[in-house]
Design brief:
Radius of gyration: 21 Å
CATH architecture of the largest domain: 2-Layer Sandwich
Order of helices and strands: HHEEHHHEEHHHHEEHEHHEHHEE
CATH topology of the largest domain: Heat Shock Protein 90
Pfam family, one: HATPase_c_4
Protein name: Putative ATP-dependent DNA helicase recG C-terminal
Keywords: ATP-binding, Helicase, Hydrolase, Nucleotide-binding
GO molecular function: helicase activity
InterPro entries: RecG_C_sf (IPR038475)
Structural class: alpha+beta
Length: 378
Amino acid sequence: MRWTDRLTLDGTWAGNLFQFYLRVIQRLSVDLKLQFQLDTDLFRKGETVVHEAIREALANALIHADHQGQGGIIVERYRDRFEFSNPGTLLISIDQLLRGNVSECRNKSLQLMFMMIGGAEKAGSGVDKIRRGWESQHWRSPKVSEQVQPDRVLWMLPMVSMIPEVSLERLNALFGARFLKFDKLEVQALVTADLEGSVDNARMRQITDGHPADMTRLLQSLVARAALLQEGHGRWSRYRLPVSTGLSAKKSHSLHNDVDSLHSDVNSLHNDVDSLYKGDHSLSKVQNSLHNEELLTLAAPARERQRISPKDMEKIVLDLCRGRWLSRNEIATLVARNSEGLRQRFLNPMVEHGLLRLRYPDKPNRTDQAYTAANGEN
């Protein structure tokens, strides 16, 4: 593990959540290249709405965490995004959360503390503040998701343009003249699938505030025109582009290029604050792996057929992971399968049977977990 910025109990600070918050927020906000704003008296303001959004996101993770749950609060800063992850589950639905004006707090004393220092909102407007900050820069909408076993809530705040030119170039190359026929919302869905690996109804509602039925019709229309491939059914449906456009390779690349991450374990209100860290998420042997002709060839039998025997799929996964580290999402994209289903049906059993090894065996649920064949040399 390489460390560029570590906060530990060295006797120079109290080691409580309040002190932790003050120190972390400074590290998160430093070096943000943003145009300054003016107040009503035309004086330069000390912070922008983006700074306010980051402050709200950090306070939100601390306030709504289940401090008796598994794992700690993880705060990571990358070149192209912030990620805030806390143990526990949402106490309201994601739709209610995004609509705002509904507040259901797990730790009211912490909420009161942050309200008193101006770090949090009580009326359910905190999410609006986060989204407003990101909209001011025309960045992609923040994404909230839940994980089970262990229960965690993840906020991902991408510092990426809503419709990046590089994504439009890839989609133009993929669809040709057809791309000009897609309307604005359809382009947004395709760009999301390109940048994030897949898109679903919930994610489109986070981006556009559209009605669920309208988003379903939109995505199904793209499927009917062979612009997207559907995985799963009903509320579990996810949609991917028909071929890899390099987006997941770009995402993988960002995991190991100058990743500035801050990490802390806060298991209870009395817990020692562990540290803020930059993780070395290097997957150096598989840079741009989804463009790698060898991997595409190995995965072709699975990608080209909807049904394949478990034995054949297992062999394909082993071949892909032999001599290199691949993340779950990379493998899923290569074989054109749902990543969660792939993990449960193949990756977990293959690890248990000694066929695959984890890059981080002591933390199997890390979001950047990677796999290699047990007999592979890395």
